[in-house]
Amino acid sequence: MASATQNPPINGIIPTPPQWAKKKPLPQTLTIAPVTPSTLPAYRRLITLLLPIRYPDKFYHDSIQTATSCTIALCALWHDTSTPASEPVVVGGIQCRVDPIPAPPSSPGKGQESLYIQTLATLAPYRYLGVGSALLEAAIEAAIAIDYAGGIRDVYAHVWEANEDAVEWYARRAFAVEPEVVVGYYRKLRPRGARVVRRRVGVEDHLRATRKTETEVDGINGSIGKGKAASWEMG
Ligand SMILES: CC(C)(COP(=O)(O)OP(=O)(O)OC[C@H]1O[C@@H](n2cnc3c(N)ncnc32)[C@H](O)[C@@H]1OP(=O)(O)O)[C@@H](O)C(=O)NCCC(=O)NCCS
Fold first, then answer.
1. Where are the domains of the chain?
2. 28-214 in CATH: which number?
3. Helical ranges in the chain per DSSP H
4. Closest ligand 1 atom, CA of 26?
5. Consecutive 10-residue runs of the chain (235 residues): their mean pLDDT?
6. Residue ID of nearest Cα to ligand 1 atom 40
7. Ligand 1 pocket mutation, candidates 129, 136, 195, criterion most atoms within 8 A of CB
């Protein structure tokens, strides 16, 4: 049914934004920020608590990004407004790696990159507030803003085949679920298979990232990439 807030028709077709793009307002007490030495211990505890995989120290060493880093690690911070002096609490996190895609033989040197989601998790009491979606969006925007050599072509993740909720969560955010299960992907889990979920990074993502970069706020992610800063303040 049409509503007064729908986008105007283009050539008679009413554009329907994808489901994942229909954002409800996020709580103003939430911000998304790169993982720093001070938030790393809480970020590490959160990942250890919520995901069934044990990551090595190197993984957390990579969480603190440098100018040449191929890792994007962000955390969601909850600010307790009732006690203004209190430290924000880490309530969610995402860590991604930028993987080069080999250039096709037809155009050598034109390789692009994939953004690989290594971890994504929100503490249970803070779920269904948009934290996971905000982390995902912010990681894609950060990867675009860093401006890797060939540009980010797509974003993908392995999801444990038994984690149907997560597979569906990605599917509702326009990720395609690849039909084949990657057999034996998880050595220590039963069942051991993984589903691959993948979404192309398109023009809309680039436009959103550009808009964010234009409204830079110093300091929030000055450590990422080529010094480009973007604000991921919610509200
Ligand atoms: C998967 C997971 C990260 C999702 O986190 P989350 O913070 O609850 O995610 P969101 O709040 O963005 O989305 C959940 C629901 O909240 C709703 N929501 C509420 N406010 C919202 C907002 N402002 N923006 C977007 N969604 C919002 C959405 O409708 C969404 O439901 P939908 O999927 O039907 O659209 C979380 O369930 C989790 O940590 N699971 C355990 C770890 C895991 O499985 N990780 C994934 C494998 S790597």
1. 28-214
2. 3.40.630.30
3. 40-50, 57-63, 131-146, 164-171, 203-214
4. 23
5. 38 44 77 96 98 95 84 95 89 95 74 92 97 96 80 95 97 97 96 97 84 55 35 31
6. 121
7. 129
